[in-house]
Design goal:
Layout lengths: L1 H21 L9 H6 L1 E9 L3 H13 L4 E5 L7 H9 L3 E6 L4 H4 L3 H19 L5 E2 L8 H9 L3 E2 L4 E2 L10 H12 L5 E6 L5 H16 L3 E3 L2
The structure holds zinc ion (ZN).
């Protein structure tokens, strides 16, 4: 048994070396143990919007991928159907903010909690789902607010990679794709920040490229 096993191991190592050189062709060989270690969370902030969120949902459905949407609840009115679609298609609804107005949210830890709870209440009323994940508008460390949110049962989710749709003015799909790939390098797992508010059509255009890349690299797609 041992002697038979050695050529198989050598073959495997050789294959890995070849694959390391080929990079993007990882998907050609089912290296299951690698896939389990490589994980990416696609996250979308600042929606829902009619145009971009619906497009993103179409793509995710076609690709059979679940993602996480951090909602701005003041943008829900008139888009209840889109919010319900996010839930119905198995994605995670997270709390981002009611207003997304920094001067109001960050005036005190109590103000931030009130804003978060208002957003959560809208999500509950429209979808029946009680959201348990939270993302700070604008990111950053907010220890007092974070403590308060955790006491109220929220898991706080940041990010470690960006597609650049807020950072790079007027970026096209190709630029967003490149930014996602570059900033995700060396991250385990990757938590990729994207936006699905109305001005982010290029993000929806970049999404298939981003999915194709990470799938080819052997990543699994997860939602919070
Ligand atoms: Zn935001």
């Amino acid at each position: 048994m041992q002697r038979r096993f050695i050529p198989a191991v050598l073959l495997f190592v050789t294959l890995l070396l070849i694959l390391a050189g080929l990079g993007a062709r990882m998907n050609a060989v089912p290296v299951i143990s690698f896939a389990a270690e490589k994980e990416i969370y696609l996250t979308f902030d600042d929606g829902p919007s009619t145009s971009v969120t619906e497009k993103v949902l179409d793509i995710l459905k076609e690709e059979n991928i679940k993602a996480t949407f951090f909602i701005v609840s003041d943008r829900v009115q008139g888009r209840e159907k889109t919010l319900r679609r996010i839930a119905a298609e198995g994605h995670t609804l997270g709390v981002h903010s009611k207003t997304h107005v920094y001067s109001e949210i960050y005036s005190s830890a109590g103000a931030l909690l009130k804003d978060a709870e208002a957003c959560a209440e809208t999500i509950r009323r429209v979808t029946g789902i009680n959201p348990r994940v939270y993302r700070f508008p604008g990111g950053g460390e907010h220890p007092a607010s974070a403590k308060l949110l955790r006491q109220h049962g929220y898991r706080i989710v940041g990010w470690n990679a960006v597609c650049g749709d807020e950072e790079i003015r007027g970026a096209d799909a190709e630029t967003l794709y490149s930014s996602a790939v570059e900033t995700a390098k060396g991250k385990r797992p990757v938590v990729l920040l994207m936006h699905d508010s109305a001005t982010h059509r290029a993000t929806a255009e970049a999404l298939p490229l981003i999915i194709e890349h990470f799938r080819a690299e052997g990543y699994t797609f997860s939602a919070f």
